[in-house]
Amino acid sequence: MGCNSCSSAKDGQPKGCNNNGTCGTDGCNKLTVFDWLSNMSLPGGSLPFPYVEIRFKNGRKNFFKNIENTSLNIGDVVATESSPGHDVGIVTLTGELVRIQMKKKKVDQDSEEIKKIYRKASQKDIDIWQKARGREETMKVRAREIAIRLELQMKISDIEFQGDGSKATFYYTAEERVDFRQLIKEFAHEFSTRIEMRQVGFRQEAARLGGVGSCGRELCCSTWLTDFRSVNTSAARYQQLSLNPQKLAGQCGKLKCCLNYELDAYIDALNSFPKTDVKLRTEKGTAVCQKIDIFKGFLWYAYEGEWMNWHKISVEDANEIIAVNSNNEKVAGLEEFASELIEDTKTDFENVVGQDSLTRFDQPKRNKRRNRNKRKTKGKRPSEKQQVTVSSKTKGGNPENKKTNKSSNQRNKKRKSRNKNNDKA
User: Fold this and answer.
1) Other beta carbons within 10 Å of 365
2) CA–CA separation, 376 and 373 (whole Å)
3) Angle at which helices 123-134 and 136-149 pack, to 10 degrees?
4) Cβ-contact 51, 103 below 8 angstroms
5) E strand or H helix at 146, and its extent?
6) In terms of Cα–Cα distance, which of 69, 83, 92, 163 is closest to 115?
7) For 218-239, what is each residue's pLDDT tens digit?
8) Cis omega before residue 84 (within 30°)?
9) N-terminal to C-terminal alpha carbon distance within the chain
10) Alpha-carbon torsion 240, 243, 246, 248, what sign?
11) What pLDDT does residue 117 have?
12) Which of 50, 82, 313, 348 is most buried (CB neighbours < 10 A)?
């Protein structure tokens, strides 16, 4: 996602969208749709489809009727009908793709809720629109302060100004019903504009604000996902996921929408598996299912009372044992079926150098010369003459050593006497 103006500068710093979200490619906006019919011309005599899809702030889209048959392209800024006044939006889709989108979302072409397009927005309309949008962030901070002061259990997530600046819509989330009559009075007095409060769900809030998921990519609800299907914890159970709410919850605090993406593949694969609560009866005892591997087609069973010893069995063998048990018969044991699945774990090489050890550089290197000298001394034994000389030295001692010992003792006595005299003084 991103148009050419959103690319990096020469120094590597991002330039940002210089068109302020009004680029002609519509590539840096939320919920973009690729017009794969843009290069195809209409057959002769056929009129273009009179309805247009227009996007407003944070991916809010609506269908409008082009009564005056104005030539519109993707990225044009138009003024549309609103109550009261007019609104300003960006054209995101034209032509036959709008007909397909209206059928997909079940929108009737003759409905009175579909409003009309006035004209292409002038420079004055765009200036008023940009000025109103510049006030939204400061108003949101001030609105949150007022809601906290009134001790209302609600969260104001976003503010959207109308194109002419005559009305501001406050989007909020709340778990319970909120009485905001006093809040609207203070908002009208503080901001001097028409106020409309609109409650949205937690998933709609995440879709409006956007963010990055645990997968490292942008949120699906803010990029391409338009319908929010219900997600249950049974989807995680089918996929053998741990029921940890911190890992299964998304940015909205609810279960992740991506849990439903691969659910059908898991359900189809589990059709051939026996139920995990069915026990296998053998002559050695009853076995209980402990774990399954859906894509490899294996199950692990353990005898009652021997929970540490697991036996790996294929799906076909498990169904065969269950069929035998249904006839009130027992199998000799699970070891016969598990022995066929034992894998040969022998390696074809030997670790000679020690390259597989992760801690091979942690221990300091030893000096080989010292080790060699120690080995030489350990290997040699002293001769009888050396033993006699050593014993004689230890018994009698050298006369020179005796003299040095006497002199050192005399010096120590003199030092002690000096220290005593200093203490008495």
Assistant:
1) 6
2) 5
3) 30
4) no
5) helix 136-149
6) 83
7) 999 888 888 888 899 999 999 9
8) yes
9) 92
10) positive
11) 93
12) 313
The identity of residue 363, as a single letter, is: Q
How large is the greatest C-alpha to C-alpha distance in the chain, in angstroms?
132
CB under 8 Å to 365, separation ≥6 — which residues? none
Average pLDDT, the chain: 80
pTM of the predicted structure, to 2 decimals: 0.65
Question: Is residue 163 within 8 Å of residue 125, measured between CB atoms?
Answer: yes
d(CA 29, CA 27): 6
Tokens representing residue 358 in the block: 């992760």
What are the tens digits of pLDDT across the range 12-23? 454 555 544 445
Q: Position 171: which residue type?
A: Y
Alpha-carbon distances of 61 from 208, 258, 374, rounded to whole Å: 12, 23, 85
Q: Which two tokens stand for residue 367?
A: 């000096």
For residue 181, name the pLDDT band (cuts at 50, 70, 90).
confident
- Cα separation of 220 and 92, whole Å? 19
Please give the Cα distance from 53 to 62 (Å, whole number): 6
Tokens 């003024």 map to which residue? 79
Q: Can you give the three-state secondary structure of 314-366, one letter per residue?
A: EHHHHHHHHHHHHCCCCECCCHHHHHHHCCCCCCCCCCCCCCCCCCCCCCCCC
- Return phi, psi of residue 59, to 5°: 80, 5
**DSSP three-state, residue 255:** strand
Task: Give ∠ CA 324-330-333 in degrees, rounded to 5.
Answer: 110
Distance CA 225, CA 258 (A): 10
pLDDT on residue 24: 46
Which residue type does 294 have? I
Q: Which residues pair with 38 in a beta bridge?
A: none
Neighbours of 47 (CB within 10 A): 7
